[in-house]
Amino acid sequence: MNIVVLIKQVPGTDNVKLDPETGVMIRSGKDTIINPLDENALEEAIRIKNSHPNVKVTAVSMGPESAIKALKEAVAMGADAGVLISGRAFAGSDTIATAKALAATIKKLGPVDLVICGERATDGETGQTGAMIANYLDIPVQTYVSSVEIQQAGVVVKRTVEGGFERVEVPFPVLITVNKDINEPGFPTLAGKLRAKQVEITIWRPEELGLDKSELGLVGSPTRVVKVFSPKLARDTILHKADGTTGPVDELMKFLAAKEVL
Ligand SMILES: Cc1cc2nc3c(=O)[nH]c(=O)nc-3n(C[C@H](O)[C@H](O)[C@H](O)COP(=O)(O)OP(=O)(O)OC[C@H]3O[C@@H](n4cnc5c(N)ncnc54)[C@H](O)[C@@H]3O)c2cc1C
């Protein structure tokens, strides 16, 4: 069975800088971590690998070359291989351009049975990429997955839905997005770290994916982040001191009426 896990490298800090002109995040490669829910995705793939024969786990990322670090970490945790798609032409991708590029990468890898993504990434946080990749691969998607059972010809997943759970049986190939209830991510072992040092991360450039230039990066992104700013928190305090009369209450009622709350 071939499993692909999608790994996004995200800022490991709240001090995220955005380009005020383009609205695109400045990714310096410093202070980066694997998106926490992608660690859950990876852990699930490794759990399946450890409990079933002939499972290959490939971690895939799109990002600057510093994302090699995230893929090496994935190998140290138990993935068999890592593929990075990287190049200036990918810069400024929205979820559509990201999903097209990642779907093309998965297709290039050959037949896949299960694709596992995090439910959302902590930086862009749209939660759209997984479902869009499934769309471009033309395979079914199951979101908010909190458990997976591997069957002969597919998976049975438990999905978190409003007010409870849903159990869905779906044939291979399938893409799932996982939430944090699925497992507790483990840590790289010493043997894993040593293996990661030896494993060469494959890097594919934009022109190797068979996509047209017009589908990549900022050019291929219909979404524009028009403006990015930090919202100003402003609070006015009006104090009416109790003076034994109904005055303060009357003032409050007038204030609420003026705000059309009453
Ligand atoms: C402030 C800000 C606002 C943005 N607003 C929008 C917007 O409104 N619309 C829009 O289309 N784009 C928007 N983007 C761009 C968006 O962040 C990118 O398209 C990005 O590639 C998708 O990121 P996400 O965090 O939304 O991913 P999500 O959809 O939240 O990620 C879900 C999962 O998909 C996988 N995944 C996502 N990206 C990658 C990757 N590069 N490599 C490997 N796996 C990956 C991971 O498994 C991840 O857990 C915005 C970016 C910023 C910084």
Explain what this protein looks like in three dimensions.
This protein is an alpha/beta fold and 262 residues long. The protein has one domain (2-215): 3-Layer(aba) Sandwich (Rossmann fold), CATH 3.40.50.620. It is 27% helix and 24% strand. The protein has six helices and eleven strands. It has a nine-stranded mixed sheet with strand order 9-8-7-10-6-1-4-5-11, with helices on both faces. It has a two-stranded antiparallel sheet with strand order 2-3. α2 packs across α5 (190-198). The longest helix is centred in the first third of the chain and has 16 residues, at 36-51. The termini are far apart. The model has no long low-confidence stretch (mean pLDDT 93). Flavin-adenine dinucleotide binds at residues 6-8, 25, 35, 37-38, 41, 61-63, 93-95, 98, 102, 117-118, 120-121, 123-130, 223, 225, 228. Belongs to the ETF beta-subunit/FixA family. Residues 22-213 form the Electron transfer flavoprotein alpha/beta-subunit N-terminal domain. This is Electron transfer flavoprotein small subunit.
